[in-house]
Amino acid sequence: MRRLPLLCALLPLAAAAQLGIPSAPGAPAYLPRAVFLGAYSNNTAFTPQLRVQWELTLLQTPHDAFVGIAEVGGGWGLGNLPRNVSLTGGDMTYFYQHAFLAGVAYRATYPNGFHWGFHFATGPLAYGGNITDTGAERRLGMTVEGRVQFGIQAGPFVFGLSGGWAQLYDFPQDSLTAIFTGGPIGGAFLDWRPLPAR
């Protein structure tokens, strides 16, 4: 079951390659196509996230696209971090989450400028923090994340709001920080992936 999210992400890529449909011309794939500024909110852990996203067009029509994505970024916990985290009542004084994700996405932008889409991605999450009585914890685990997005096109750019959910595949029993990772995620995005001429 743990392999199911990865299979779901890879199967559409294989299907698109099998179809052999050329992608529309646009910016080179090595250039970032989008940025996301948002935050995780899990229990009392609020972790801002700044992400950069690359996209590789797999299938393209005049109004929508099926793309492969890679997204990298992260952030550090702000505000009132969790308290009484350890068995002896230690408080969290530092917390971070950095994600390295890959997956598939659907993007649709219509002639009236309305845009919507979604993506599903998986990959390693570096996370950890400091607890007053147990010290530093540094972890690396696999996470899965899904987000939907809605926005408006303005020239070659699309901007709007995006939100979803992220979760580790496994929660190590000896970790004091794992339960505060992921959860609801929301924020704003700016996408400059070129669309073909209509």
Radius of gyration: 19 Å
Structural class by helix and strand composition: mainly beta
In DSSP terms (H or I, runs of 4 or more residues), the helix count works out at: 1
**Based on the structure given, which CATH architecture is correct?**
Beta Barrel
Report the strand count. Answer: 8
Poorly predicted runs of 5 or more residues = 1-25
The proportion of residues in beta strands is: over 45%
The N- and C-terminal alpha carbons lie at a distance of 42 Å
> Sheet with the most strands?
8 strands, antiparallel, barrel
CATH topology: Porin
Percent of residues in helical segments? under 10%
> What's the order of the H and E elements?
HEEEEEEEE
Shape: elongated
What is the averaged pLDDT score?
A: 87
Number of discrete domains = 1
The CATH class assignment is Mainly Beta
Could you give a quick summary of the protein structure above?
By secondary structure, the protein is mainly beta. It has one helix at residues 4-19, and strands at 34-42, 45-60, 64-76, 92-109, 114-131, 135-154, 157-168, 183-191.
General description of the model:
This protein is mainly beta. It has a single domain, classed as Porin (Beta Barrel). The protein is built from one helix and eight strands, in the order H-E-E-E-E-E-E-E-E. It has one helix spanning 4-19, and strands at residues 34-42, 45-60, 64-76, 92-109, 114-131, 135-154, 157-168, 183-191. Strands 1-2-3-4-5-6-7-8 form an eight-stranded antiparallel β-barrel. It is elongated. The termini are far apart. The model is unreliable at 1-25 (pLDDT under 50).
